[in-house]
Amino acid sequence: MPGSTLPGQGDLFAGGGWEVPVHAARAPPVSDPVDPRTVDDRLLLEKLPLAGSADCSAFVDEAVRRQIAGAVPALDALCRRFKGFGMTHPVREQTVALAGLAAIGGPEAAATVQRLLTEHVVAEPGLSFALKAAARLRVRVPPTIVHDALNACEPDLRASACRCARFWPAAIPRLIELLEDLNHDVARDAAIALGVAGRCEAVPFLVGLVMQEPTNEVIEALVTVGSDECFVALGRVGDVWPDLRHLVIRALAASDHRLATTLLRRIDPDHPMIVTDER
Does residue 23 register a pLDDT over 50? Predict the structure, then answer.
C-alpha cells in the first residue's frame, strides 16, 4: 500500500546519518576512512561536508583547530545535507556542525547560522543546538522562532530561546514568566537575559544565582542592572569565590556605579584604578 511501512522498516526521517537514494547524488557516503589530522586543508574541506555520525566530530574539530578558510561553507553544507531529517531526535552531524560554527565565530559564521534558522534546515528536536550557536554568535534570531521556542514543551529549547530573546523587547513579559519555570536551566537563562536587558525583575534570582553558580554571564547581568543590591552581591562573590575574583574586579573596574570604587578598593587595594584615583 502506498505510504505504508513494512515490519522492521525504519522511518527514514526519524534521525540522522541514514543515506537514502534521494540524497545519494549530493551526499555520497565517505567510502574510505580518513584521519582528518593527516590530510591537507583542501582534502579536509572536501571530506568535511560528507562526514558521517562516527567521524564528524573529528573533522569539525580539526577544521576549527586549523581555522581553515572555507570551513564555514563546508559546515553549512554538512548541516544542509540532513535537512528534512531529525524529526524525532537531533541529528548528530548537524549539532556538531553548529557547534563548529559557534567555535569559529565571526560575521560569516553568524550569517550562516541565521540562514540555517530562517530556512528551517534544523528540525525542532535539534533547534536548541541552533539557538545555542546563535546566542553565542549574537545572531538576531527571527522573533517568530524565538516566540515559539520560548513556549516549547522541551526545557532545553526554552532555555536556548531565552539566550536569543534579549534582542526582542516583546519577549520580556514571557521571560519574566519563565523566572518561575520549574526547570532550573530555563529560569537561570531567563534571569540572565533579563539582566542583560537591564530589567530589575531578575535581580532576586541573579543575586541568589551568583552566590551558588557564579559565572561571567551572571556577573555581567548584575553589572548591567546596576542596582545597589547587585553590587553588594558582587562584593560578596569576591570574598566567597577567590577563583572568580578577577571577574568581579574586571566588572567593578568597568563600572561607574557609586559602589564600584568602594568595593574595588576593598577587594583589590592595589588595582591601578584605585592608585589613579588617590593620586
Answer: no
Q: pLDDT band for 191, please (50, 70, 90 cuts).
A: very high
pTM of the model: 0.79
Q: Rounded to an integer, what distance in angstroms lies between the CA atom of residue 16 and that of residue 86?
A: 6
- Range 161-181 burial, b when 16+ CB lie within 10 A, else e: bbbbbbbbeebbebbeebbeb
% of the chain residues with pLDDT over 90: 65
> Where do runs of H (alpha helix) occur along the chain?
21-24, 41-47, 56-66, 71-80, 92-104, 107-118, 127-136, 143-150, 155-164, 172-178, 184-196, 203-212, 216-225, 228-240, 245-253, 260-267, 272-278
From CA 71, how far away is CA 122, in angstroms rounded?
19
Write down the domain spans for the chain: 10-139, 198-279
